[in-house]
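Readers of this paper often ask what the protein records in our data store actually look like. An entry from our holdings is shown next, in its original layout:
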Amino acid sequence: MKSVCPLARWAGYALAALPLAAAPVAARMRVPRRRLREPISRRGITPVRVVAHSVLSACVGLLAWFLVFLAVLGFVRGVAYPLVAANDYENSWGGPTLAGAWAVHAALGVGMLPVWLVVLAGLGAVQLRLIRKLFERSGPVWPVPAALVLAIAGVFLFLSWLSQL
C-alpha cells in the first residue's frame, strides 16, 4: 500500500463508504485502520449512532460515486470529443477548428482529474472524521452537520445535472 498515493487512499476510502454503510460495525472500524492506518476505537457505540453513521456515510458515499461518474464522463467526453460532441465545433471552446476544440476539451478532461482526486480525498477525510465523531465520540462536532450539508448539496447537484440533460 505504500506505493499508492495518499490522496488515492483517501479517495478510495470515500468510495468505500457507500458499501461500508451497510456493513457490520467491525468492518467499518477495520477499513480505516487497514486502508488509512487510522485506528478507530469503540467508545459507547449505540444503535442510534450506528444508524446515524449508516445514513450519513451512505449519503456522502453516494455523492462520491456521483462525482466519480461526472469525472469519468468529463474525461471520456474530453478525450473522445470528435466522436461524442463534434457537431458544432465552430462555436465550442477551442473552435473554430475541430483540432482546437478537441485539444481544449481533451486538456480540460485530463486536467480536471487531479481536481476530482483532491475532492474525493476530501470526502474521504470527512468520512473518517464522521466515524470518529460517531463511534469514538472524539474530535470536533462539524462532521455531522458537514455530512448533512454534503448530502443536501449532492441532491441539488444531481437534480441540476439531471435537468440539463
Summary: The longest helix spans residues 47-79. The mean pLDDT is 86. The chain has one domain: 6-163. The chain is about 75% helix and 0% strand.
